[in-house]
Specification:
The chain is α+β, with helices and mostly antiparallel strands and 295 residues long. The protein has 2 domains: 204 residues, Metal-dependent hydrolases (TIM Barrel), CATH 3.20.20; 79 residues, Immunoglobulin-like (Sandwich). 15% of the residues lie in helices and 34% in strands. The radius of gyration is 18 Å and the shape is globular. The structure holds zinc ion (2 copies). The site of one zinc ion has 6 residues, from strand 4. One zinc ion binds next to strand 4.
Length: 295
């Protein structure tokens, strides 16, 4: 059995979000205010609807990303590091061909594409069959900072796409438009250094996890066992955790709970993949990427 662990390379954990709005589209705040809202983040992407907003002015955030939210009436898709000439003859029309062209252009420019808020059922959602038709996108926004469990959580669609045999990573982003939506969901990226290149490389490798306030110190493989070292300190160690290991089709493989700082799952070989969700007392959570299990 071979367990593919995306968390092998070590470096520094960096915190950031790729999907946020300004007054350049329907956000309530100008870029300089958004920078201040996220002042302590390590990286930030600005992804206005159908526009690439220029980064300019003072900020404390070390790394910023050009991004755009391709926003047809039917579905939305985030492109990070799109080429500037994307805007020439730009169309947000939702056809697989047009969206695929946008994905390809971002990927070919060294960036990546993420299908965002796939379950926002009242508008702008993704049909599973379209998610399976589109190729080369790197991931799915499984946790959108609007945080409404009826439509901004998409673990079901992630498991469905993963179970179809695709390798896609899960993202957490605020999609912030107004005060109160900031710092609800983010990505913790294990990068060699805080540069755009190192962060994108780590994202492509899957060396990151989604957080809403809790986290992992490490995710390791020992033999056939997946080991999750939960974020630990004197205070956290006294608090209750609830850990679930999920496999193919979202099947619950194992649950562990208690005032624990580690959880383990021994693979049998037929899981397809194993991903880990942990909730800390109070509701703070973290969600790992899948570790693919190859027989
Ligand atoms: Zn959107
Ligand atoms: Zn958005």
């Amino acid at each position: 059995m071979n367990i593919l662990n995306p968390y092998q390379l070590t470096g520094q954990w960096l915190r950031g979000s790729f999907h946020n709005h300004t007054t350049n589209s329907d956000g309530w705040f100008p870029l300089e205010t958004v920078y201040k809202m996220y002042a302590e983040y390590d990286f930030l992407g600005i992804s206005d609807h159908d526009k690439i907003t220029d980064h300019r002015g003072n900020r404390t955030i070390k790394t910023v990303f050009d991004a755009i939210e391709v926003s047809s009436k039917q579905t939305h898709m985030l492109l990070v590091n799109p080429p500037r000439d994307l805007m020439e003859n730009y169309s947000n029309a939702f056809t697989i061909e047009n969206y695929q062209r946008h994905v390809d252009r971002a990927v070919d420019n060294g960036g990546f594409a993420v299908l965002v808020h796939p379950n926002r059922y009242f508008s702008n959602f993704w049909e599973l069959e379209d998610m399976l038709k589109l190729e080369r996108y790197i991931g799915i926004e499984v946790y959108n900072g609007d945080g409404n469990p009826e439509y901004d959580i998409a673990f079901d669609k992630w498991d469905a796409v993963l179970s179809s045999g695709r390798k896609v990573w899960g993202f957490g982003n605020d999609d912030s438009h107004v005060y109160g939506q900031e710092k609800r969901a983010w990505n913790m990226v294990m990068a060699s250094e805080n540069t755009p290149e190192a962060i994108i490389e780590a994202i492509k490798d899957g060396n990151f996890y989604v957080s809403t306030g809790y986290g992992f110190d490490a995710i390791r493989v020992e033999g056939d066992t997946v080991v999750a070292d939960l974020r630990s300190n004197d205070l956290l160690d006294k608090m209750y955790k609830y850990v679930t290991f999920f496999g193919k089709n979202g099947e619950v493989l194992q649950e562990s709970s208690g005032r624990i700082k580690q959880a383990k799952y021994e693979c049998k070989g037929d899981e397809g993949y194993v991903r880990i969700a942990v909730y800390l007392e109070g509701g703070y959570s973290a969600f790992s990427q899948p570790l693919f299990v190859v027989k």
